[in-house]
Design a protein that fits this description.
Number of domains: 3
Distance between the termini: 42 Å
Shape: elongated
Strand content: 15-25%
Strand order of the largest sheet: 1-6-3
Structural class: alpha+beta
Order of helices and strands: HHEEEEEEHHHEHEE
Largest sheet: 3 strands, antiparallel
Length: 219
């Protein structure tokens, strides 16, 4: 189910029994409201969890200007990075590479002593590339956001909020949000590694690379 931003908001409105918008600039109060909050809400939800479909892995280009203090090199982070999605940092793109911790992010710069840097990060992925379960989640999130504006019904707003986010004790990660996170996690399979250069450093256990849980195969 590939929908545009406008179609996502329109679907939310239809489910509330309201007329759908045709664009974010059609002059109605509802369209203006959607135009105001949709993009920020989208970025927030993307950054709230490491969704599999929102990941990129690239090598960063090193800046010619060195950091003023502490670090040897600095790199500019990708412009399409979702700010809340903290990147994993590597010195290699090889299978089995492990993230490093010796780095610091200041603004849009990554600073480190490593001369080559790769990052796995979440980006502001276009709606056409979303997983269907995430599209459904965003329709329901916008349904919550629009509920009171469209219906003026506080009880309905509270019921929809509970359905999507769960109880207050779940901190916004219950309900449909939790179901969606579960569906996304199913795309994260266990993979077995037979490269024994890794086992020299760690005889057995689990590692983390490209968002995949690795288990060392000792057979």
């Amino acid at each position: 189910m590939s929908l545009t931003a406008v179609e996502i908001c329109a679907n939310a409105l239809v489910r509330l029994g309201a007329q759908p918008i045709q664009s974010f600039t059609d002059g109605t109060d509802v369209a203006t409201f959607c135009n105001t909050i949709y993009t920020q809400k989208k970025k927030y939800v993307l950054s709230s969890y490491p969704w599999r479909f929102s990941m990129k892995f690239i090598q960063l280009s090193r800046n010619t200007t060195a950091p003023a203090i502490k670090w040897t090199y600095q790199y500019t982070l990708p412009a399409d990075r979702v700010q809340g999605g903290f990147p994993e940092v590597y010195t290699s793109s090889s299978v089995g590479a492990r993230p490093i911790r010796a780095h610091e992010i200041v603004g849009n710069k990554l600073m480190t002593n490593e001369s080559a840097i790769y990052v796995k990060y979440q980006y502001n992925v276009d709606e056409s590339l979303w997983a269907e379960y995430f599209t459904e989640l965003m329709i329901n999130i916008m349904k919550v956001e629009l509920a009171y504006l469209v219906t003026n019904n506080t009880q309905l707003y509270q019921e929809l909020k509970l359905e999507v986010y769960g109880t207050p004790s779940e901190g916004g990660f219950g309900g449909l949000v939790n179901i969606t996170r579960f569906l996304d996690s199913r795309d994260n399979p266990n993979t077995y590694i037979t490269d024994f250069s890794l086992t020299n450093a760690r005889v057995c256990g689990t590692g983390y690379d490209w968002g995949i849980n690795y288990t060392v195969d000792m057979s």
